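Recap from last week: sequence in, structure out.
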Amino acid sequence: MGLDLMTSSFIGLRDKLHRIALRYLQNDEDAQDALQDTWLKLSDKGGVESSQEARNKLVAVLRNNCIDLLRKKRTIPIASIDTGEVPRCCMEIEDIERLEQLLQQQLTPQQRQIFNLIIQEGMDYEQVATQMSMTVEAVRMNMSRMRKKIRETYKKLNQ
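Predicted structure tokens:
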């Protein structure tokens, strides 16, 4: 009984379901594929109590199939990505050295020490604050100012 109800509902709603799929996919062949996939998924399951339940299942599964097809179109297979050329680094070694020299000139000794402890030593703000007898907020403020100087220096270097 459930399979017959599903079949009759699918036949009755076939044109409407096709229009729904066409609205999602904008391609008749893909809409036909989605419709066929919908029928294949639901014909195996069956077990519906009413025509309204069959209609709801058909529309929901069709919508999900359309969304899956749209997602598949957006993804690029790994085999199609050109990996022949390795991207070059944005900054040359000389640029990095010039940036470091400019930073050393612009940072105060305390800022350089905080920067080295956080970036090179991997300490967190609390550890730096206790080691340097500062508040955590003062360490955060110094790091914020250093990042701002780094951005400004990098912009000057690239002009």
